Model the fold of this input.
Amino acid sequence: MDKNIMAVGAFFGMTAIILGAFGAHALKEILSPEQLQVFETGVKYQMYHALFLLFISLVPSVSDKSKKTISWLVSIGVLLFSGSIYILSMGVAENVKKVIGPLTPIGGSLMITGWIVLLITILKKKS
Done:
């Protein structure tokens, strides 16, 4: 289980760096400064949660059940949140925005829920 969580964290971290470089170089000429800032927000949150998954995989005091729940919430959250931000920052057509736009807050809510599960797990833990 920990190996899988660590692998997902490493994958998210690697792709965040690749996408960050892509945004800083290739997209700099294509996107407006505002669009680029939105794209970078997706990269930042992806990287934060890559590190969060790596952290969770290494903490022995968090149960395997909690780790599994957190990793699913965060992984799906990153895909929906950052993925939708990447697409929306490209200035997609209005009809695509109507479909993709609602995924951003859903993804954000899933990531927040992952942090809530960690907080509850810590507070329930007996010293």
